[in-house]
């Protein structure tokens, strides 16, 4: 299969039709390059707040509500494009009011057959806790698709090994992110590469890029697309299958073979995935005081 990960800029939108045209162009571009699976980034949906005017777009809680209110229309558009181009799409995540105590950070996953499900972020960053007031949603899921078993770790979630381990059956883990600084980008990238090493799987990292001066929440964004695997048999020695250019909008594409994933799990130089339980017998520690 071919995976396309986005470095996606947030634009000012004057009309819903403008958003339809933008998204259709992005999907057509990736599909035209042979992509089977498209990954949009975390909080890429925040540009939808501009449809309610500058006052709403600049107001944090107002923009969250405005974006959440449009997600049914967003889903319908993604389902249409997924079917039209015969591609799987992880849509850009959005703050969604979904019946929990707080809005959740949710990424919708679309199948070309019309099926739709979602993954909610599990662990909130400091800015999501305050001032965004975003909370954890539903549990981690594993999507069984014609492209293999796919999991999603949204941004900060990729930095937690036990969340990655919960998706140990995944062939591919998608990592949509939104980071404003180089350090933030690298935290997520290192997390994505670490999960690929531990799970002996492929991870696909998408980013928001560029500035959005109309926003007080996602006004500066830095990152790029990337696809990673374990640095082992059948994969590049660096673990980097493909990477984009920092801060440059566009798709990063990579060919991925499920057989290569199965082979490295069965006969890799190391067996991180199957040897994981051996940690449990080794982590009991004794306290030894060395006195002068």
From TrEMBL:
Cross-referenced PROSITE patterns: CN_HYDROLASE
User: Which keywords does this Swiss-Prot/TrEMBL entry list?
Assistant: Hydrolase
Q: Which SUPFAM superfamilies match?
A: Carbon-nitrogen hydrolase
Under InterPro entries, the record lists:
Aliph_Amidase/BUP (IPR050345), C-N_Hydrolase (IPR003010), C-N_Hydrolase_sf (IPR036526)
Example GO molecular function? hydrolase activity
Which Pfam families does this UniProt record tie to the protein?
Answer: CN_hydrolase
Q: Where is the CN hydrolase domain?
A: 1-258
What is the protein's given name? Answer: Carbon-nitrogen hydrolase family protein
Origin species? Pseudophaeobacter arcticus
Q: What is the lineage of its organism?
A: Bacteria, Pseudomonadati, Pseudomonadota, Alphaproteobacteria, Rhodobacterales
């Amino acid at each position: 299969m071919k995976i396309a990960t986005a470095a996606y800029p947030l634009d000012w939108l004057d009309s819903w039709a403008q958003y339809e045209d933008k998204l259709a162009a992005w999907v057509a571009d990736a599909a035209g390059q042979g992509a089977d699976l498209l990954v949009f980034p975390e909080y890429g949906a925040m540009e939808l707040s501009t449809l309610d005017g500058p006052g709403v777009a600049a107001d944090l809680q107002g923009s969250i509500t405005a974006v959440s209110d449009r997600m049914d229309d967003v889903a319908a558009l993604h389902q249409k494009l997924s079917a039209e181009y015969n591609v799987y799409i992880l849509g850009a995540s959005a703050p969604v009011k979904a019946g929990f105590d707080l809005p959740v950070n949710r990424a919708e996953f679309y199948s070309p057959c019309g099926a739709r499900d979602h993954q909610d972020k599990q662990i909130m960053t400091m800015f999501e806790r305050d001032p965004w007031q975003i909370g954890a949603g539903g549990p981690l899921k594993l999507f069984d698709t014609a492209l293999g078993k796919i999991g999603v770790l949204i941004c900060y979630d990729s930095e937690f090994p036990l969340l990655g381990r919960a998706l140990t059956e995944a062939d591919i883990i998608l990592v949509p992110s939104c980071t404003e600084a180089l350090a933030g980008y690298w935290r997520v990238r290192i997390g994505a590469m670490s999960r690929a090493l531990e799970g002996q799987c492929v991870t696909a990292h998408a980013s928001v890029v560029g500035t959005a001066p109309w926003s007080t929440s996602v006004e500066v964004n830095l990152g790029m697309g990337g696809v990673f695997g374990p640095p082992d048999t059948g994969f590049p020695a660096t673990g980097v299958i493909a990477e984009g250019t920092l801060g440059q909008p566009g798709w990063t594409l990579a060919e991925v073979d499920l057989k290569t994933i199965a082979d490295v799990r069965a006969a890799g130089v190391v067996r991180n995935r199957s040897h994981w339980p051996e940690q449990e017998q080794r982590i009991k520690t004794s306290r030894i005081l060395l006195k002068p």
